[in-house]
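Why do we bother with a discrete structure alphabet at all? Because it lets us treat a fold like text: something you can write down, compare, and reason about line by line. To make this less abstract, here is a complete entry for Xanthine phosphoribosyltransferase. Read it the way you would read a sentence in a foreign language you are learning: slowly, and without expecting to understand everything at once.
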Amino acid sequence: MKLLEERIRKDGIVRAGNVLKVDSFLNHQMDIELINEMGKEFKRLFADEQIDRILTVEASGIGIACIVAQYFGVPVVFAKKSQTKNIDGDVYSSKVESFTHGRIYDVMVSKKYIHEGDRVLLIDDFLANGCALLGLLEICEEAKAHVVGAGICVEKGFQQGGDLIRERGIHLESLAIVDAMDSQTGAITFREQ
């Protein structure tokens, strides 16, 4: 998606350790016009799929998931990163390692919100090593829900996550795939799609 690539080139900041900061428009401050266009693109890419709900991980994926859900007319469920008093009863859970935070979370979804046979679209802001998506896949497998695909805003194509998800036969659509980043120059190279 050229619009997203242009915005990353303009406002993205490359940091050491393969970190790409897009918090000025995607996952801290959110440019709703841009995210709305991304929602339309995910609707186009998954238009042939029947979707019952969208699943993401707390917290950065929630904004884009909500916009995408408007186009499909379905609810958003997000896997929480910590047990709260609001989660009662049984939950589906998985361990997820965060690339950005460098820690492991037990993510959970109440069994009230994902059911056997549900057709689920996974949405997230970034795909690096694939841990978050693999955790969401595990939750869906536990629930006996069917994952129709995964939509990612920014995939780091030079890390293993995309390959791991595609090898599992998941229909993966990334709006921008970064093939290389240089923290010294700030240069970002995108994969032609």
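What the structure line is telling us, in plain words: The chain has five helices and ten strands. The radius of gyration is 16 Å.
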